[in-house]
Amino acid sequence: MTTLVTGATGFVGSAVARTLLARGHDLRLLTRASSDRSNLDGLKAEVVVGDLTDPASLKRAASGCRYVVHVAADYRIWVPDPNEMLRANVEGALAMVRAAAEAGAERIVHCSSVAALGLVGDGSLSDENTPAKEEDFVGIYKRSKYLAERALRDAMVRENLPVVIVNPAAPVGPRDIKPTPTGKMIRDAAAGKVPAYIDTGLNIVHVDDVAEGHALALERGRIGERYILGGENMLLRDVLALVANVAGRRPPSICLPEAVVWPAAAVMEWFAKLTGIPPMMTRDHLKMARKKMFYSSAKAMAELGYQPRPVRLAVEDAVAWFKAHGMLKA
Fold it and tell me: How many domains does the chain have?
């Protein structure tokens, strides 16, 4: 049984590929010609070249595959050209799922994000059924994931596509080669480069648990349903304290009000537009931080048997990997 995994050179995708390989899947991995393939080291798999913006390459990749797990996405908080992200995350996702269905795939797992879901934001838990409107989504990444999932769900109904959607929270762990925005926060905090924090919260999960959730969705998920793959809901203050403890540093003790940080974020965005260098913080970051991003994984736990491990293990694995790969001083 050949299983296609897209995005396998990336953080989540490489974890998904390893999990499926351990479960006996024969893997075909779709990668861009320009991708860093270091995360594929040691993986027994067929590698094919393609791109989410090239529908013909997606059809070739999906040909003969019994299952398809679509993980590839553009995950950045700031981009110079928002349309580039929309093409990859919205049009590309729809093209990949359609190519898989046309190739006869029995089941397709689409990796979305909790960013695509409604959010209560007051510290109580959001779930798969929390109401959402397009205007609620701050920032191009969140908006792209919401629009992608909306387009997919419409197509699933119209075209009877065999899709299960998973919505990972903020993954942390090994092989975060770029790193992702969450991984960069963990690395910087472990290096003592995060002296202060803002009052917000997020759901942190081990990347290998997210990968396990993908495999469980492929095996047990109900077609047409979506499942949150989260870990622990934590205040940002407590996440940074945990990272500091693991790294042997003092945790930051200064909580900055939004009014203080807003002008700095505006300047960083201005500088990013001039140079193309991604800003450390944007005004969209601050808008998102107004709501605590807390989610429930109860549905995945009940229906899929999903069981995430303690977040401390995710942080320990991430810090150890960053050190081992020269991204953090030992």
Answer: 1
Domain containing 227 — which CATH number?
Answer: 3.40.50.720
Give residue 203's identity as a one-letter amino acid code.
N
What's the domain range around 42? Answer: 2-173+204-234+293-311
Nearest to 72 by CA among 45, 39, 42, 24: 39
Q: Is the residue at 230 inside a domain?
A: yes
Nearest CA to 200 out of 272, 102, 313, 121 is that of: 121
Which pLDDT does position 78 carry in this prediction? Answer: 81
State residue 23 phi and psi, 5-degree precision.
-90, 5
Residue 307 falls inside a structural domain? yes
Give the DSSP letter of residue 39.
G
Gap between the Cα atoms of 196 and 240, Å rounded: 9
Answer whether residue 113 is part of any domain. Answer: yes
Query: Which among 319, 328, 190, 170 has a CA at the least distance from the CA of 251?
Result: 190
How many of the other CB atoms lie within 10 Å of CB of 274?
8
Angstrom distance (rounded) from CA 7 to CA 41? 14
CA distance 132 to 191: 37
Query: Which pTM was predicted?
Result: 0.95
Q: Examine residue 243 and state whether it is found in any structural domain, yes or no.
A: no
User: Is the model's pLDDT at 255 over the cut of 80?
Assistant: yes
Are the C-beta atoms of residues 74 and 88 closer than 8 Å to each other?
A: yes
What integer is the mean pLDDT of 222-228? 97
